[in-house]
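Researcher: Here's the sequence for the chain we discussed earlier.
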Amino acid sequence: MQFSSEFILDRAHFSECYEQSSLINPPKKCRYHFIGALLIFGFIIMIATDQSVAVGLFFIGLAFVEFFSFKYRKAWWLSRQMWSKNSGNTITLTIDDEAIKIISLYQNQSIVWSEVSEVIDTPLGIILKLKNNNQSYLSKKSLSGEALNFIKTKTDNTNLHG
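Model: Thanks. This is the structure I predict for it:
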């Protein structure tokens, strides 16, 4: 059996990926000690050394970037995805007996079934956890009911959770 569909990597798709993945991944904690160390280091460089003030300001700027990347982590993540080469491109998703193939203009990925360690059903899609600790999100918008059932049968009895 083979199932094929296409979707566009747009802001709505990336947002759905982030939101559904955050349902199963614990939220990261802000690294306040790291931010504080960057601030202190920056001020020490500015006050106590002969280095240019710009070097100290660089470390202080890094502290602000670290803080805002945590505070606005979804917007930060979405922005990075929207800047990627594949953003806005049409993706072809093919599911067959051998693998799940994701083909785009800049990247081709193939996930063989033996690499999938767990399939997690979310309200809007499924998350494939791989044996190398990576994960891939597939939106139910781009999968037919038959394709979802096929994925469940390929991974049944060992790793389907939901």
